[in-house]
Design a protein that fits this description.
binds ligand DP6; 9 helices; Ribosomal Protein S5, domain 2; single chain; alpha+beta; Alpha-Beta Plaits
Length: 402
């Protein structure tokens, strides 16, 4: 290695958030460009609880592009990874040829090393590809001096990743163009818009999902008439209703739509041939619990949504969090000697009235839920300024290996 290789290394580290859809994306009209058959809408979760951190470095001494994920070297030649790298390099080259003085002079022609890790267990089955691709695209764009509309690039890594490019409440407009230029994410409201909104992730099991979302939605598009009906006739109206519920901070409307849309998404999975099951017995018990809880108060106080796995994501308002967590503990008694049951934002314990537990009236299921992550809406991707937090060392290799 030449003496000046340390000086010749350009390094950038960024973080990006997870998002959880309340109007689900399921189905593509173009597999390569990742263009959806319907628009979708999500809440970006706070990075204090869930985030991906990515460091990218370029140097004229690097011999090839390389990537390390959660401490292990991974295959850089995956098509979606290649799409993102190619697109950001193209945009950097274009900026340079357009004469922008801020564009990186040569970076786009250098090889790049990428190192990425999550602050949450991948085995928990939480959506990591959205935060992962959003972080990759954001970090590469900072490294090569590219800005502007980047959700279109993140979308080509993983559809849902385009929504993680913004904080708060984000819609992904499906767009109409064949080249996907109008299939982009857009912030509906910032994370500060609805400060009382809270998110609880009920981690149901660590078993891996049977069918990944990419393969699952492909089979659904091919076989489910219900999915076509959903995309053509249901989602357009729901997008409008959801945006208006968010703008008015109307939890009852927001919660009801969220639950109905999750249920319809899982109904399209059941309508897929052969059918796909993401919900398990614990998920269905959570659904029952939520409806019984809301029924007791004659009000939609909590709402569930499920992605391509059994974990429940609960949306509620701050004033109901403590009681609802106690309800979950009562009906899914946790392992007492296990790890901390409640993680994330602190919640003070409350006691439950007998009237409430009697009204819910379900048999407790011990250890059904392994832990809860308590969080809220948060901001979009960020640059990490502190150089001691880079995941790649001065030699361009990961600082710690698995
Ligand atoms: C159920 O974004 O993971 O979470 O575009 O093939 O990478 P690909 O799929 P992905 O699908 C997410 C599906 C979902 C719903 C949602 O997030 O909108």
């Amino acid at each position: 290695m030449p003496e000046d290789n340390v000086q010749s290394l350009t390094v950038v580290t960024c973080t990006a958030p997870v998002n959880i859809a309340v109007i689900k994306y399921w189905g593509k009209r173009d597999e390569d460009l990742i263009l959806p058959i319907n628009s979708s809408l999500s809440v970006t979760l706070h990075q204090d609880q869930l985030k991906t951190t990515t460091t990218a470095a370029c140097s004229r001494y690097f011999k090839e592009d390389r990537i390390w994920l959660n401490g292990k070297e991974d295959n850089i030649n995956q098509p979606r990874l290649q799409s993102c790298l190619r697109e950001i390099r193209r945009l950097a080259r274009k900026r340079r040829s357009d004469g922008d003085p801020n564009a990186d002079a040569l970076g786009y022609s250098y090889k790049i090393h990428i190192c990425s890790e999550n602050n949450f267990p991948t085995a928990a089955g939480l959506a990591s590809s959205a935060a992962g691709y959003a972080c990759l695209v954001y970090t590469l764009s900072r490294l090569l001096g590219v800005d502007g509309e980047l959700s279109e690039v993140a979308r080509q890594g993983s559809g849902s990743a385009c929504r993680s490019m913004y904080g708060g409440f984000v819609q992904w407009r499906m767009g109409e163009q064949e080249d996907g230029k109008d299939s982009v994410a857009e912030q509906v409201e910032a994370e500060t818009h609805w400060p009382e909104l809270r998110v609880l992730i009920l981690v149901v099991s660590a078993e891996r999902k049977p069918v990944g979302s990419t393969a699952g939605m492909q089979t659904s598009v091919e076989t489910s008439a219900l999915l076509k009906h959903r995309a053509d006739s249901v989602v357009p109206g729901r997008m409008e209703e959801m945006i208006s519920a968010i703008r008015q901070r109307d939890f009852a409307a927001f919660g009801e739509l969220t639950m109905k849309d999750s249920n319809q998404f899982h109904a399209t999975c059941m309508d897929t041939y052969p059918p796909i099951f993401y919900l398990n017995d614990v998920s269905r018990r959570v659904i029952n619990l939520v409806h019984r809880y809301n029924h007791h108060y004659r009000e939609t106080r909590v709402a569930y949504t499920f992605d391509a796995g059994p974990n429940a994501v609960i949306y509620t308002l701050q004033q109901h969090v403590a009681e609802f967590i106690q309800v979950v503990k009562h009906f899914f008694p946790p392992e007492t000697n296990g790890e901390q049951f409640l993680r994330g934002l602190p919640v003070s314990p409350v006691s439950l009235s007998e009237e409430l537990t009697r009204a819910i009236g379900m048999d407790p299921l011990p250890k059904g839920i392994s832990y809860i992550i308590s969080t809220k809406a948060g901001p979009g991707p960020r640059v990490v300024e502190d150089p001691s937090l880079h995941l790649l060392g001065p030699d361009g290799l990961p600082k710690k290996s698995a």
